[in-house]
């Protein structure tokens, strides 16, 4: 079975192309890892051959989601790139009004809850955060709000006491009543649903754009522009390279850069 579903070079190229069309993700640099892991994944989908799998992938919505979950497994943790998060919170406080924030991708919720925790520590309640991700498994985990282990390594003991409850298995559950409104949805930034999410004052998109090819980055910038409010800000991760476009002005700040809607 393993040999039967092993992709040919052409089939692997087609798989990479399909994923790029669906999500903007460029998997070319992960070809070796894909070659090692794809056979096991495809065998679990009950496909008879890799060609059978590819044919189903193009038309089967459930299989598309399973495959996206497979290729977008990432690791994150609370208070990641903390200096930037603090800058975002201080900016929100300066606005002195209700602020809508989009976290895209939100992964398993650590970034959303980190911003909400920092906001609570700065006495900010008049804000709401929507976290979206293409991976259904991490969205469900974010909704559940239960964490353990290394993801909490930068959370202080006092923060754990205030913002979490801990059970006998050392599983920490977020105290949502201590935080601003946090919501999570399964959403692909390149689907029509994304443009119907509403208007946002701030978009935080860290460690996603790095995986996109140039054309997908340009398309994403236009879509971010469409859902940002006037003078809205886009914050990206330190490794994310943003192409120059007419949609955003690059602004240098004490803790890096952000992009302001033009």
TrEMBL record:
This is protein-glutamate O-methyltransferase. Its EC number is 2.1.1.80. The lineage of its organism: Bacteria, Pseudomonadati, Campylobacterota, Epsilonproteobacteria, Campylobacterales. Gene3D superfamilies: Chemotaxis receptor methyltransferase CheR, N-terminal domain (1.10.155.10), Vaccinia Virus protein VP39 (3.40.50.150). CDD domains: AdoMet_MTases (cd02440). It catalyses: L-glutamyl-[protein] + S-adenosyl-L-methionine = [protein]-L-glutamate 5-O-methyl ester + S-adenosyl-L-homocysteine. GO terms for biological process: methylation. PROSITE patterns: CHER (PS50123). GO terms for molecular function: protein-glutamate O-methyltransferase activity.
């Amino acid at each position: 079975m393993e040999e039967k579903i092993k992709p040919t070079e052409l089939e692997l190229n087609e798989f990479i192309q399909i994923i790029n069309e669906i999500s903007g993700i460029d998997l070319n640099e992960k070809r070796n890892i894909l070659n090692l892991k794809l056979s096991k994944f495809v065998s679990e989908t009950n496909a008879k051959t890799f060609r059978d799998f590819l044919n189903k992938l193009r038309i089967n919505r459930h299989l598309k989601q399973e495959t996206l979950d497979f290729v977008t497994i990432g690791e994150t943790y609370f208070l990641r790139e903390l200096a930037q998060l603090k800058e975002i919170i201080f900016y929100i406080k300066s606005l002195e009004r209700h602020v809508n924030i989009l976290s895209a991708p939100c992964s398993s919720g650590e970034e959303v809850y980190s911003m909400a925790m920092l906001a609570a520590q700065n006495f900010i309640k008049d804000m709401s955060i929507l976290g979206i991700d293409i991976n259904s498994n991490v969205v469900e985990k974010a909704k559940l709000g239960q964490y353990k282990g290394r993801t909490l390594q930068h959370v202080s003991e006092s923060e754990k006491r205030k913002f979490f409850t801990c059970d006998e298995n050392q599983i920490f559950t977020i105290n949502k009543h201590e935080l601003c409104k946090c919501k999570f949805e399964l959403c692909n930034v390149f689907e029509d649903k994304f443009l119907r999410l509403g208007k946002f004052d701030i978009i935080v998109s860290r460690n996603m754009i790095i995986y996109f090819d140039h054309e997908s980055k340009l398309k994403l910038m236009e879509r971010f522009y469409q859902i940002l409010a006037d003078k809205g800000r886009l914050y990206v991760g330190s490794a994310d390279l943003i192409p120059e476009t007419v949609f955003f002005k690059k602004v240098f700040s004490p803790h890096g850069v952000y992009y302001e809607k033009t």
